[in-house]
Design a protein that fits this description.
The chain is an alpha/beta fold and 473 residues long. The chain is built from 14 helices and 16 strands.
Length: 473
């Protein structure tokens, strides 16, 4: 079987751009290489490779990969990730040059049995019209984010409001009102491409050393008044409708990484018969520990938050919750926050002395996760947006820590228990949940009664191969 996997950035990206999707694809490709010799994997990415010397739109073989053949579309007219192409909505919808390059790639490197898009960022919508030219290929699209319905990918308007199906185009245009200095951006990305292609370790190290200064220079004009807003607004009117229509016509199977993602896709107009849940496999699921009985120390609940200090992740909501808790509850809670600080999200102080203990770390390393979670009684995933399925939720559950979550996104599906859910953005309800478990710690064990069995790479690959091998309907 010959399979093409697509994402906007390489699966072995040095900076792990693309976050959890990049990590997942790297694990998947390595796993396939080690366990399934009868599957030939090819990888393609677009939107992040630009050439200083030659602006021709083309594809090239990347020569720094050992797991599979890895190609890049160079000089894509659609920048990635998605926020960089926000003012290019008309290009995303109308460009045909990328379609021609994609066709050429399939003809020269196929025949492929499956083309599996793990994102559509970096491509134009017209690329999906190739199905009629390759009727034998099965086309699959996994919804790791909501790019097909939202150019900002996360249905999170103006960094403050969870979007719904009936959002207006005016609300979309107000969501991101900056212009992008495309020539500066293109030059910066071309420098990275050229230095990496030279495969000169000294040059690459020099680029890394001056990377921060370059970022400062190239960001100088990034934010400003969005140009041609009327034209872009007209494109927004078409965006979701055309994406949904072309997916329904040209994609055989749409996979959601949680049931909530599938429900949203259907609400947005994707045909229900095309949609399936496919929880992604994770390496940490291999380490899943059987939860032991909760052992209380001086009747103190150990509460932990992992991830980022971002509003959409619910970090600042959590601070509101902690500040709202009554003193008699707070003094029975030991709080651990292991969350990465971000320059665009200034942190704020709270009164930590009210709690039994309050420890703060600037993020965490995967290697130290087991030690970090040791002895913790309860994790919290208070996301405010429809977070597809947060990796931190899987990590905590895998290592035996029950979690309470908001009712947005897929995290609540891990426990499948309303006792461990609260309404997103509802500070009072979240406080009541925490207070309940402080006063009834034995109830923490109820999390495991209906909890979902985490998906290992073995199980995930088994399900994926069934989908790949199915007869086309």
């Amino acid at each position: 079987m010959k399979v093409l996997l697509y994402n906007w950035v390489s699966y072995d990206d040095e900076k792990t751009r693309g976050g959890g999707v990049t990590v997942y694809l790297k694990n998947l490709i390595k796993y396939l290489q080690n366990n399934k010799k009868d599957i030939d994997i090819t990888f393609l990415h677009s939107g992040s490779y630009y050439d200083i010397y030659d602006r021709t739109l083309r594809y090239e073989l990347v020569d720094n990969c050992i797991e599979c053949k890895n190609y890049a579309i160079v000089n894509s007219p659609v920048f990635a990730p998605a926020y960089l192409s926000f003012p290019q909505v008309d290009t995303v919808l109308e460009d045909v040059e990328l379609k021609d390059v994609f066709i050429k790639f399939l003809e020269e490197n196929g025949p492929f049995d499956v083309v599996h898009f793990h994102n559509l960022e970096g491509l134009s919508l017209k690329v999906l019209e190739i199905k009629s030219l390759f009727p034998k290929i099965k086309f699959i699209y996994t919804l790791h984010n909501y790019y097909a319905f939202c150019p900002q990918v996360n249905l999170w308007r103006k960094e403050s409001i969870c979007c719904k199906k009936n959002n207006t185009d005016e609300e979309c245009i107000e969501c991101m009102r900056w212009h992008v200095p495309f020539e500066k951006l293109r030059y910066k990305m071309a420098m990275t491409y050229t230095l990496c292609k030279r495969n000169d370790e000294k040059l690459r190290n020099a680029y890394k050393e001056c990377g921060r200064k370059l970022d400062e220079y190239f960001r100088e004009e990034e934010f400003g008044q969005l140009k041609d807003s009327d034209k872009i607004q007209r494109s927004f009117i078409r965006y979701r409708r055309e994406f949904v229509d072309i997916i329904n016509k040209n994609i055989d199977i749409v996979l959601g990484v949680s049931q909530r993602v599938c429900d949203i896709a259907n609400e947005m107009g994707i045909e229900k018969q095309k949609i399936r849940v496919a929880y992604i496999g994770t390496q940490i699921a291999e380490q899943t520990k059987k939860p032991s009985d909760i052992k209380m120390n001086d009747e103190v609940i150990e509460l932990i938050y992992l991830g980022y200090r971002r509003k959409d992740k619910g970090y600042f909501f959590l601070l509101d919750v902690l500040e709202t808790l009554p003193d008699f509850v707070a003094k029975r809670i030991a709080v651990t926050i292991a969350a990465k600080t971000l320059p665009d999200y200034p942190d704020r102080e709270i009164n930590k002395s009210r709690f039994k203990r309050f420890e703060v770390y600037d993020g965490y390393e995967r290697e130290s996760l087991e030690e970090l979670l040791k002895g913790k009684h309860l994790g919290i995933v208070p996301v405010l947006w429809e977070d597809n399925l947060p990796q931190v939720a899987i990590e905590m559950v895998a290592l035996g820590v029950p979690i309470i979550t908001s009712n947005r996104g897929g995290a609540s599906e891990l426990g499948n228990n309303e006792l461990f859910q609260f309404e997103a953005e509802n500070v009072e309800e979240c406080c009541e949940k925490i207070k309940f478990f402080v006063e009834n710690p034995e109830k923490l064990q109820d999390f495991w009664r209906n909890s979902m069995e985490l998906v290992t790479m073995d199980k995930h690959l088994e399900e994926l191969l069934k989908i790949y091998n199915e007869e086309k309907g």
